[in-house]
Amino acid sequence: MWVLVVWLFMLQPHIMCEAHVVRCGIRDPQPTVFDYYQSGDHFIGGIATQSYILASSTEFHQPPSQEKNEERLLVTKNYQHVLALVFAIKEINENPKILPNITLGFHIYDSCFYASRIYQVTLQLISTRRRSIPNYKCDIQDNLIAVIGGCRSETSSKIANVLGIYNIPQLVYGFASGMTDKTHGFSIYGIVPKEALQYLGIVQLLLHFNWMWTGFIADNNENAERFVRKMLLVFLQRGICLAFMQIYPDLGFESAVVDMVKWMEETYEKVMNSAANAVIFYGESGSMIVLRNLLCVPEMEETVPKPKCKVWILTAQIDLILSDYQRSLDIQFIHGALSFAIHSSEPQGFEEFVGSRNPLKAKEDGFIKDFWRYNFDCEFLNEVPGEGKGYICTGAEKLERLPGAFFEMRMTGYSYNIYNAVHAVAHAVHAMYLFKSKSESVISGEKRNHLYLQPWQLWQLHPFLKRVSFNNSAGDKVSFDENGELEGGFDVINWVTFPNQSFVRVKIGKMEFWAPPDQVLTITDEAIVWHKGCNQVQPLSMCNEKCHPGYRKKIKEGEPFCCYDCIPCPEGKISDKGDMADCFQCPEDCYPNADQSFCFQKVVSFLSCEESLGVSLAVGALSFSFITVLVLGTFVKHHETPIVKANNRSLTYTLLISLLLCFLCALLFIGPPGDVICLLRQTSFGIIFSIAVSSLLAKTITVVLAFMSTKPGSNLRKWVGKRLANSIVVFCSLIQVGLCTVWLVISPPFPETDMHSVTEEIILECNEASPTMFYSVLGYMGFLAIVSFTVAILARKLPDSFNEAKCITFSMLVFCSVWLCFVPTYLSTKGKYMVAVEIFSILASSAGLLSCIFVPKLYIIVLRPELNIKEQLISRKA
Predict the structure, then answer these.
(1) Would you state the CATH architecture of domain 40-56+69-195+346-368+410-479?
(2) Are residues 133 and 127 in contact, defined by beta-carbon separation less than 8 angstroms?
(3) How far apart, in whole angstroms, are the C-alpha atoms of residue 72 and residue 52?
(4) Cα–Cα dist 642/860, whole Å
(5) Interhelix angle for 195-208 vs 222-238, to 10°?
(6) Which of 16, 48, 485, 871 is the most buried (most CB within 10 A)?
(7) Residue 179, Cα to own-chain centre: how many angstroms?
(8) Which DSSP string do the residues of 790-854 spell out, in sequence order?
(9) For residue 388, what are the contacts with CB-CB under 8 A and spacing of at least 6?
(10) H helices within 288-346, ranges in order?
(11) Dist CA 244 CA 232 (whole Å)
(12) Radius of gyration of the chain (CA)
């Protein structure tokens, strides 16, 4: 596909921003021979891609001539692949610990990324040198032990079709998905990490930056189809959607220009108008030019729009490679991109080796002169006369001055793979000979005739190659898994470009297959340089704005699941993170905040003596208790006075004691409820209050009977006395005691934790267990109060000197008013305030009884003692 694109822009140069193509026939006197040879006891074959042959279909109307009408596009950056292999061979031959007394040679060909050329050079590797006659030993035949190649999957597949027949090990230094399976036999070894790890890395990278809405552009080949097929399923599982997916069009020669321009315009519009600011670009080693031409669309227009914040995510197959005709192309388009890269280190001495290359001395190197011509724009003396370049190649030109898009001094990922592949073969051969040396002195050099391996003996090398494991000179471990793939990882790099066509690959993270699942990808966010349109801020790539905490996602009808609306959480539920699919309830001991984004811990609530309300009520209860004790003491001190003796002195003491207990009973409601407290609270309150009201009822009945018995002929005199009053108190109180006993036996109150009544509180309370019994006790107490109130009203007009009916009337009026207000107030409050209402009602009603009945008597006893005499009472009666 890349060849077709180059041909397209060669045919229509006005489509390119800047473009021209060099004809190989003019500048290369022998365009069909591009190789590099060095002899040795064993030799390793290399098939590199240094150039691309551009050719169109031809119809032959007569026998074709031997002259080839081909054009070759040189990619000078790939020359480092050749140097990496040569450097590795040199390093091994100089190392006495690996294959001593045995030298390795090499024979490197240029495949030109052309099918016929690939098959031709593969056959030449297994034939007598310079003759494509396999299976025959016509002359001195080199001892081939392995082949390293190629850079792209199409090239590797064609090489494997030939080498698989001879079982010759092939080490693929580029990505060749699926080639290490049984389809091509067992002779394929991938010297690159598993591509599946890269799929995982892309997903992890998108999730790391929360880029859930992405675009995808891919090459039109089997690898891209495999990539799309696997990635779409993973994307769906991890909640990632594709805003668009563009595949290079499968163009024919007649419609190439129109269709390609149309596709580029359509794709550019989709990329720039989409909310997906992260775009995955999948291609091969030379696909960078497609991305450059795609982004070149606005440059064809009169006005260039302001660059938008788009982050390109590149696969490890892609490298920044420019050919001779692309010298002046701007590489700023790749600035800020994120890319996976084959992990590479720098072997010691490689840069010095590359810097020492001289085209005038490297006679066997069939690549270096073309590389030198194209990069330094010069010609070699007496080789191409009449060109008029004006500059002669001296060999003293400095390679480090070349832009990185044309050549790099530091070892690239593909070159590092080649370097490791050569060392893997050398270690495997060394291990094989060590194994053989147990029975014969092979390595010692005494039997040099045994060094030669026949082609049918190459299968012996495979077991050693599969188990090879070593640390190279850079300190990295090299070994293969059971599928013949390298056990390694990827680097994550950030592309930083400069106006002078130089660039820097900044390593910002890595992927390691041996790491735990949550640590496979590590990224250093602070080291990233974003695209200029992003203003150095991490871009967002989502279909819509992220839902804030307190909201949940609602899928839009007819849209991908990554597109959604944000709606508030229902009442009582929260979402504590952004973009949550659903809201959830807080735990029972927590409650949501106003924004429904966080759960607060509920406060344990009960009426405590440490808070102001509890302290106030406790002080009130104790104060009234103290007052009651004073009143009781005063009455006991003056128990022989007429006013104390009037209206049954024992009932007065009973009433005062019951009122004292009523005040103290209020203290049971303050503090955390326990089992015993819950049993005593309502029952003691009901019984004590029943005794107090029964005492008032007995006083009232006693007053009525006393005055009715004074009438002539009345038979009620025998009922007047302490026995009747005590009987009334005991009888009425026993009924309440019975009710409370039944309550405690059938369904006793118990302590309870109420989580739901008050949103922000956990209420510690006493559960009455049986509301019927509770209201029965309360109702009976009310019944006694009403009876007492009724009788007191009937007796209110009796003589004042002996009559307490008016005081009882007022006291019961207060009592009934308090408890009538208590019921609705009690039912409308929750938690500790409900308890406070009951305490207040107890204190208020008890204080009402105490004040209405005993304050007038205390006034006479304490302040007007002259009135507290029998004569005064009789005179008042008269």
Answers:
(1) 3-Layer(aba) Sandwich (3.40)
(2) yes
(3) 5
(4) 11
(5) 40
(6) 48
(7) 35
(8) HHHHHTTTS-GGG--HHHHHHHHHHHHHHHHHHHHHHHH--THHHHHHHHHHHHHHHHHHHHHHH
(9) none
(10) 288-294
(11) 12
(12) 51
Q: How far, in Å, CA of 682 to CA of 626, rounded?
A: 23
Neighbours of 722 (CB within 10 A): 13
Handedness of CA 234, 237, 243, 244 (dihedral sign): positive
Backbone φ and ψ of 521, nearest 5°: -110, 130
Q: Is 7's pLDDT higher than 70?
A: no
d(CA 381, CA 372): 13
Confidence of residue 444 (pLDDT cuts 50, 70, 90): very low
Place of tokens 């040569």: 86
Homologous superfamily of 196-344+489-534: Response regulator (3.40.50.2300)
Residue 723 CB contacts under 8 Å (≥ 6 apart), including other chains: none
3-state SS, residue 603: strand
DSSP state of 170: E
**Dihedral of CA 846/851/857/860: which sign?**
positive
Q: Which of 72, 154, 142 is nearest to 118 (CA)?
A: 154
The CA distances from residue 24 to 19, 32, 38, 56, 820, in Å, are 16, 10, 26, 15, 112
Q: Angle at the Cα of 647 (from 642 to 653), degrees rounded to 5? A: 90
Looking at residue 555, its pLDDT comes to 86
Q: Tell whether the torsion through CA atoms of 691, 696, 700 and 702 is positive or negative.
A: positive
Reported as a single tens digit per residue, the pLDDT across 42-73 is 889 999 888 877 655 566 666 665 555 566 77
The H or E element that residue 242 is part of is: strand 241-247
Furthest CA-CA distance within the chain: 166
Angle made by CA atoms 279, 284, 290, in degrees to the nearest 5: 60
Percentage of the chain with pLDDT > 90?
21
- For the chain, the straight-line distance linking the first and the last C-alpha, in angstroms and rounded, comes to 133
Contact between 785 and 808 (Cβ < 8 Å): no
Q: What is the DSSP string of 51-89?
A: EEEE------SSPPPS----EEEE-GGGHHHHHHHHHHH
Per-residue model confidence as pLDDT tens digits over 799-837: 555 457 778 888 888 888 888 888 888 888 888 888 999
Closest C-alpha to 696, from 824, 770, 791, 556:
791
Q: Where are the domains of the chain?
A: 40-56+69-195+346-368+410-479, 196-344+489-534, 551-600, 614-751+768-877
Query: Does 3.40.630.30 match the CATH number of domain 614-751+768-877?
Result: no
CA distance 9 to 14: 8
Phi and psi of 405, rounded to 5°? -70, -15
Whole-angstrom Cα distance, residue 411 to residue 341? 13
Check: CB of residue 85 under 8 Å from CB of residue 422: yes
Separate counts of helices (H) and strands (E) for the chain = 22, 27
Length of the chain: 878
**Is residue 150 reached through a cis peptide bond, with omega within 30 degrees of 0 on the bond before it?**
yes
Helix residue ranges per DSSP H, 458-532: 461-466
Whole-model pTM? 0.67
